Amino acid sequence: MRPRRTVISTRVFRLAGGTEDNDLWVTDYGPDEGGPVIGSTWELSDTERAAIASGANVELLVWGSAQPPVALRLSTYALGKAPPPSPTLGRS
């Protein structure tokens, strides 16, 4: 997935020493859109689109506890509650 600039992007975060391939374009949404919220648009590769079409999920990873950097990735973990643990054999 690659972050992409859109026609409504309002600003960009640039990686120190990076190139435009590292730019994270965002849109600032105000109170009329439920803000303050920052949104970014991501374009999937054909391989990622195929994986999602085949059942993969998208997982958001967050580092830190303030306005953190984030990453999106594909996830194939099943959705829903984890199954209960198996009973231990041979115990009564």
What does this structure look like?
The strands form three sheets. The protein has a three-stranded antiparallel beta sheet with strand order 2-3-4, with no helix packed on it. Strands 1-5 form a two-stranded antiparallel ribbon. By secondary structure, it is mainly β. The protein is built from one helix and seven strands, in the order E-E-E-E-E-H-E-E.
Break the fold down into its secondary structure elements and pairings.
Blueprint: E1 2-4, E2 11-13, E3 24-29, E4 37-39, E5 41-43, H1 46-53, E6 57-62, E7 70-75
Task: Summarize this entry quickly.
With 92 residues, the chain is mostly beta strands. 9% of the residues lie in helices and 33% in strands.
**Helix content bin:** under 10%
Q: What's the rounded overall pLDDT mean?
A: 80
Largest sheet: 3 strands, antiparallel
Gyration radius, rounded? 19 Å
Write the H/E string, N to C: EEEEEHEE
> Unreliable stretches, pLDDT < 50, 5 or more residues?
none
Distance between the termini: 51 Å
Fraction in beta strands? 25-35%
So how many helices? 1
Shape: elongated
* β-strand number: 7
